Amino acid sequence: KNQVEQSPQSLIILEGKNCTLQCNYTVSPFSNLRWYKQDTGRGPVSLTIMTFSENTKSNGRYTATLDADTKQSSLHITASQLSDSASYICVVSARGSARQLTFGSGTQLTVLP
Amino acid sequence: GAVVSQHPSWVICKSGTSVKIECRSLDFQATTMFWYRQFPKQSLMLMATSNEGSKATYEQGVEKDKFLINHASLTLSTLTVTSAHPEDSSFYICSARVAGGLNEQFFGPGTRLTVL
User: Fold this and answer.
1) What is the nearest CA distance from A103 to chain B, expressed in angstroms?
2) Contact A99 B104 (CB under 8 A)
């Protein structure tokens, strides 16, 4: 069964600090892995998308890594801002599956002033 | 990037009434759209896959007669919640898939449905 597990479930940090969110998956055959940011009451917005051959991708203060051998990914946020407070969702797509994405349960990040 | 809109952004209705939610891809054509629902503090759950010009494919446990999906054009899909009940209250999110490449899905902003 395809699964995506994220940790921690929730995280509180002070503004300006860095943090790293984790994602482990068992989706097979692997196609790509995406990180989304979802603000409360809004739809998910894509941060990064990585294929098997990519092991790091950045989008501003967000840097995602992928280790396809260990089936792990991380999302590193640098110099956090209050607007980074949101749920961060790891989503994995299986190759050959036109419709199915496997969603993680998300990490709820709260950035305090 | 590709933009997906939803309308309305929120709706409150009485139990027993029907509610229609629209999902539009604004700057691209989407042969496939997806409908999700999300309960508080939970992740998105796929309800159905909607292909333009054909019947939607529903996930196990989703009542097709209760959640009617129409994908009449390459830029519009609608979800109608029929005879809504309070347990249907949820956050409904659509996404549209860009064919080819990584088959990336772009999500709409969501519709908050509250059934009284």
Assistant:
1) 7
2) no
Q: What CA–CA distance (Å, rounded) separates B41 from A98?
A: 27
Q: Is the Cβ of B57 closer than 8 Å to some Cβ of chain A?
A: yes
**Angle at CA A78, nearest 5°, toward A72 and A83?**
105
Contact B102, A36 (CB under 8 A): no
Q: pLDDT tens-digit profile of A51-62? A: 988 999 999 999
Mutation for A interface: B38, B105, B114, most A CBs within 10 A: B105
* B1 in reach of chain A (CB within 8 A): yes
Question: Angle at the Cα of B37 (from B31 to B38), degrees rounded to 5?
Answer: 135
What is the C-alpha separation between B46 and B50, in angstroms, rounded? 11
pLDDT digits (tens, 9 = 90+) for B37-94: 999 888 899 999 998 888 899 999 999 999 999 988 889 999 999 999 999 999 999 9
Residues of chain B numbered 5-44 and touching chain A (CB < 8 Å): 6, 32, 34, 41-44
Q: Is B61 left (phi over 0), alpha (psi -120 to 50) or beta?
A: left
Name the H helices within B2-43.
Answer: none
What are A51's two structure tokens?
A: 């294929």
